[in-house]
Amino acid sequence: MSSLARTTVDWRTSLSLIGTVTKALTLPLVGTALVAAAYREPLAPFVGPAALTLSAGSALERLERDDLGLREGYLMVALTWFVIALVGALPFLVAGEGTLATPVNALFESTSGVTTTGATVVGDFSVHGRSIHLWRALLQWIGGLGILLIAVAVLSQLSVGGAQLMETESQTQDVNKLTPRIEETARLLGWVYVGLTLLMVAVWMALRSVGLAPAVTLYDAVAHAFTAVSTAGFSPRADSMGAFSPAVQWATIPFMFLGATNFVLLYHLTQGDLSRLRDSDEFRFYLQVVLGLTGLTALFLVASGQFRSVEPVVRHALFQVVSILTTTGYATVDFNAWSPAAKNMLFLAMFSGGMAGSTTCSIKTIRWLVVLKGFRRDLFTEVHPDAIRPVRLSGNVVDDAVVRDIYAYVLLSLVLFVLLTVFVVVADAASAGPEISEFEALGAAAATFFNVGPAFGAAGPYGDYAGFPVTTKVAFIVMMWVGRIEIVPVLVLLTPTFWRS
Length: 501
Hints:
Elements: H1 11-24, H2 26-38, H3 44-61, H4 70-95, H5 103-114, H6 130-158, H7 163-169, H8 182-209, H9 218-229, H10 246-259, H11 263-270, H12 275-278, H13 281-304, H14 310-325, H15 340-349, H16 365-383, E1 391-393, E2 396-398, H17 400-432, H18 438-449, H19 470-484, H20 488-493, H21 496-499
Antiparallel strand pairs: 1-2
Helix pairs in contact: 1-3, 1-4, 2-3, 2-6, 3-4, 4-5, 4-6, 5-6, 5-19, 6-8, 6-9, 8-9, 8-10, 8-11, 10-14, 13-14, 13-15, 14-15, 16-17, 17-18, 17-19
């Protein structure tokens, strides 16, 4: 039965599919339990939640399932991330250590993980064992893979998440027909994701073998590969990437950059097809934004005398711009100490994001490119009212309805960001929490809603979000969730007509 023929939402189908996803989370929980056993750490934080997850997932999966329709797809997308976040919080609560021992903090950390945000409430990293830190990293890797697969298998069917533009920019007539079956397409892109992760582990260990990465262990390589390719940014080290040598920092930049690149283009690249990447307007724009912001940041760092030689200036400027722009959120230095001009470049980078069809978050470069092309077209037609000048991406015409949708999405994103900032400053943190400046509130709102992670001030790269009031952290949890699934599915669920015929 098609979704058009239904008069109500078939919630059983949505919950059944969510049950399948939930049951699948048993595998990473068991895997992390094995790591805990290897390091002689408590198994209870993972064994107990694994049993509960398997039972709950199996029960939901047994619900009657029909074809996934339009409404059921929206419901599944919106609820899947919330359910995974709930499961992800269980090990933190069972472990009962440090700031993660409270329900709100545990849910904040888990939501930050599965949405690949990277904002943390962990202050003392030494309190938690390696298995807990690995679980944090694994949550982010699962979240990055999940958004990639859902974008192909579900969101493209709902015209959510820029799927139409992803097809235009990857020069693929239908992303779902990269191969004849959606499942096979998702599997191919998943293997690209896994391959990038393994490649980063190999690169880090190779640097260690030649003496360029003495502080790196296999555990470090795996944990950081999980969180770099997923453009997420959790690190088991309190100093983040500052704990490692410049060689390691340089070697990590390409993986953050590629994690925020359209994975359909990366797949074709693995097949030896360079033309799609070369001909992509969005990829060129993405590269230009990275290089432009890096150049300005480096210029401001030189002007402020932050570093005394060229290499550190270029390395820190490029690393931090790529890290923030791709919404990874790693840090090589405490950029709280940078000049206001340099920090503002990083703040601007929060609003960019990488390419559509990647693991990145934020508004994404393809939307900004369409906005710029659309604005230029509108200026031209003001002077030449009889002219017909469509917006084009990589030579393909973008439908005017899609252009209008993108205008609306960007405007809505900025409005929600401003409202969250007002809530943080006026309604909550100013009265019940630590003193926070307007710029710090802007940074925290952007870092959570656009899933970037670190902000400025107390929530900076070597700080945390633990000091914010509970109500503010709850607001951040909701906005991380809304930002990760790109607003539309949540708004659709809040529409009364969604639940009626």
